[in-house]
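Let us work through a complete example step by step.
Step 1: write down the sequence.
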Amino acid sequence: MKETNGNMNMKAKAFPPGDAQGVDLHPVKSKVKVKAKTRLASLNIGMLEGKTRELASMLNKRKVDIACIQETKWKGQKTLMIGDGYKLYYNGIVSNRNGVGIILSQDLTFSVVEFNRISDRLMKIKLCISQSILHILSVYAPQTGCKEEEKDEFRAILDEAVMEIPKDDLVIIGGDLNAHVGKARDSYKRQHGGFGYGERNEGEHILKFAQTFDLAIDYMLISRRRLKDVITAKSSQEKV
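Step 2: predict the structure and record it as tokens.
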């Protein structure tokens, strides 16, 4: 397993919080047993301190295999078992702001071939599951009130992280992008999954990003070429 760390010092909810997905990864014979469908979730937890056991219990109850979490407010670059077989990979620069993490179920920890802690707003894990290569990105975008320079820097780093991924691999981005794509799909019918609400604000950047990398917004940002493999689970959460 390969680990790489980024050194970007960035100054600077989930997209969407708590919605789970099922991805058909078509498993074949392998030494590692994996499920036919892998469930994913993304949530902004506000602060992770004192919540790890509760979080693990919730993920186990909802049968979530992969969870992207944001705003952990944990300092450091570590991995940690948090209960119920779940393993947390996290990254943070300071203990009072930002911080991202990715949580994997016990079975999937054996499928990790690389994890890259790029910044306290972005990290990526690469999984090799049977015949599929899956890249999971957990992202936490600067808030609306942050400086434009900070937002542009985040977008540039995210662009670079996605550009490095081979075009035939599956990409799933879960996170809090701090923007609304709005209800209208207009010229983004290929990218807009139809789950938006209200008026669009800085969500235009999200849609352009999805258009550039051929992603679809279906609660999470998912590779358009593999969208047919994704099943959206029912959720009572507010749709983005």
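Step 3: interpret the result. The first strand starts at residue 2 and ends at 5.
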